[in-house]
Design a protein that fits this description.
Elements (H helix, E strand, L loop, with lengths): L2 H4 L3 H21 L2 H17 L3 H27 L3 H7 L1 H17 L4 H33 L1
Helix pairs in contact: 2-4, 2-7, 4-6, 5-6, 5-7, 6-7
């Protein structure tokens, strides 16, 4: 069964989205150094200015992310490797699949400011997403296997 199909149930979808929002919060809190301070400050500002924004983004991108991850999930199942372990082993591919969705979204954004800001942040985004893959793999394993 594909990842998208496994997560299609509304109750399961809600639980996965809740866990994804918690994962984002957790990953932001783990950031260290000057860069971490900048990320934390920006994240806190977004959350206070637009409460519920992170959840709205996750909900809005969820189906596209799942569709991009389906081939990797299917490959894991076909190989006999548990998908969470396969995702961790293939964290670079997983990160690129997720970022392909946000790349497309940013490219089609109406706001020039959004596009330019994303372009500035994109070079470091892959590393941050790769760091979050083990947590993502665990929560997908919890809900989809």
């Amino acid at each position: 069964m594909s990842l998208s199909a496994a997560l299609a149930d509304d109750t399961k979808r809600t639980a996965v989205i809740d866990d994804c929002v918690d994962l984002v919060d957790s990953e932001v809190q783990k950031k260290k150094g000057l860069g971490g301070m900048v990320i934390k400050a920006g994240y806190k500002a977004v959350k206070s200015i637009k409460p519920g924004f992170i959840r709205k983004v996750v909900e809005g991108l969820f189906d596209r992310w799942a569709a991009k991850l389906d081939p990797i999930w299917d490959e894991a199942v076909a190989s006999g490797t548990p998908p969470p372990q396969f995702f961790e082993d293939e964290r670079s591919r997983v990160a690129e699949a997720l970022l392909a969705v946000t790349d497309e979204r940013a490219e089609n954004a109406d706001s020039k400011l959004v596009r330019k800001t994303y372009e500035k942040l994109r070079p470091t985004a892959k590393n941050h997403v790769e760091q979050a893959v083990p947590g993502l793999a665990a929560l997908l394993g919890k809900h989809a296997t």
